[in-house]
Amino acid sequence: MTASSSFTIPRLEMDPETGRQLLMVKDKPFLCLAGELQNSSSSSASYMEKQMENLRSMNLNTILMAVSWEQIEPIENTFDFAELEANILLARKYDFKLVLVWFGNYKNGMSTYVPSWVKKDPNRFPRCSIHCPNNDQESIVEVLTPFAKENWNADAKAFGHLMSHIKEIDSVENTVIMVQVENEPGLLGDSRDRSREAQSNWDAGVPKLLLERLAKTTLHPILLSRLPNLPKILQNAALSSSTSDGWIEVFGSQADEVFMADAFSQYVEQVARAGKEAYAIPFFINTWLSCDDVTCLDLEGIPLKHNMTTAAGGGNKPGDYPSGGCCPQMLNVWQQNAPSLDIFSPDIYLHNFQWVCEQYVGQNNTTQRTLVIPEMRRDEYGARRLMLAYGNYNCLAASPFGIDTMKANEAPFSRIFKLLKKVEKPLLKAKPGLETFGFCFDEIDRSRSTIEETRVKIMGDWKIIIKRAHVFGVPGPGCGIVIQEAHDKFLCIGWGYSVYFSHENKQFTGILSAMELDYVNTEDGQGTLKQGRLLNGDETRSGACLTMPNEYPDEGGFPIPITIPSGTAITVCQPYAL
């Protein structure tokens, strides 16, 4: 598996025409249609070989898989990459790209995937200590403290060896295209580490460098809402000759979490830097989200029971969720301290999907122009939100978690990934959020008094109005993306919705043409969209709107089948205005 000396590595590259940040693989833009395995699945290549045919049937082109420190360095300074190499060969055989997830020191706020020689030597590899309110004592936990250099040196060395090996065996083929560095780092059980090493750093006060960095950046709206006087405090502290500004003095109620975010981000930077020096492909970090902002704990307007959310998501206080992780309120700290990370990513399960995406890319984030969602729901609800991720937020990869324990024909995302593959070219050529619009409609909750049925987007002179597709019968769920390919040319993909057009300066609008498209393979392997049926009658309601129907559009038993079932789920539509 030895690579040659000449190679082009995967990289992130900004398209000057669209403003879209692209993942370039073999010098071509690549859209990851991804799924993440269960955490222990990739530890056995023989297990993975049994899963490959099923995974191919899910229409994936990318797999996120863990590589654990304990497996590649079972004995200190003795590295074993046999299972990893076997998995890479399997991925090539079945035409998958891989995103590796480094289970180093941190995995879900714990240190359970470190080698036994690390676990059994707490003197050399110190652990965090937390305060136990039940007995008013402190107790060590299975989390290596980020304040001990011996911890990050060992982790960074192992990760550097991993990336060097990947470069050696894969720099020509480019099977491995991105790496997640650690997994949901942070401290569970307490808002901050009480170990001796941590207390020494706490007593020393806020590092001057952190104050200077934060004073120069635009603070995240959530952090500002909690600490409205922070910009002034940071400016004064950065200019002060004092070298011992206290954490509480500067950060008030957020002091413990900022303290831990500063430590974890510096730790991860040490690890990521070692990897970049070995093989500089794109790196990202993922985040176990906090539940402290109740407004974000709903399913697009349907509030969740708070006890359900805290049980599944961790809670609403630092320590209930991993304190110091890259949550939105700590994003500034991570971005300033960890320049070797290219992308800062949320895992989204129970939160309002759009709200979370907006915190990491878009108006709330002036420094990040793309998004990776390493973990998300794998059910129908999650699958529909793939359209939001790829349509609105320049998402490089949105990845349902636990894919290897599902059957492809039962996986809701299989159908959506198949569709997204067909429109990959026009999607990557559009300006994200300006010339693309992703949306979805969930099953109707009859217990709600009001149901939001309209999605609106302005594209140039046109107002795009999306409504749930419904003629007769029972309206169902739906999802889609509208791509503006020219001033009066819109590519509509998906099902379960109708598109209405309104022009800013004209009184009358209608649909001039609607043509169904289908994807066909070409000799060069690139594929193209070919014209199919002309849909200028019932499917446009005589020019009123374009309907992208569901598979079973008229469930109410109306005897006249006026709405045809969904076909290719791809239509190019030309509106006009007089």
TrEMBL record:
Q: Name one GO molecular function term.
A: beta-galactosidase activity
User: Does the keyword Hydrolase belong to this entry?
Assistant: yes
- Protein name, UniProt field: Glycoside hydrolase
Fetch the InterPro entries from UniProt.
DUF5597, GH, Glyco_hydro_42_N
- The record places domain DUF5597 at 413-544
Q: Does the keyword Hydrolase apply?
A: yes
Output the Gene Ontology cellular-component terms: beta-galactosidase complex
